[in-house]
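Hi R.,

Here's the chain you asked about this morning:
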Amino acid sequence: MTVTLQEQSDALALISRYARSLDTADVFGVLSCFTDDASLSYEDGRIVVTGRADAEIFLRGALGCPSTHLLSNYGFERVGPALVVTCSAIAGVCRKEGLVTLRGLVYIFTCIGNDSGLRIRKLQHSLKWQCDAPGGVP
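And the predicted structure, written out as tokens:
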């Protein structure tokens, strides 16, 4: 079964909202992108979070620093009722004084449609590379 252009557009809008919410440290904005039973896996499974309540606790601790996420190279695949979206990303995060940590990432979003629209049921985040560069919050 193919993925329609409308489904691709809906998925891109959802993933963009997720990334913008991360970058503005909007915990409730990020949570609104997920289903209640969402499963989140960060850094190749080193951090696993299940369910909305645990996701809120995790995000409150993780989103305290300014960041910028740039996502691209999207791939779309239908797996049963789910839409699986894979993309590459570069994220810049200011966690260390005077430095920006740059990270090369791959995201896999498994999205499900329901009465309230498309939501992320499963997120897989893979760290491919990381380095620190001079910079930081002005």
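Residues 14 and 50 are 20 Å apart (CA to CA).

Let me know if you need anything else.
M.
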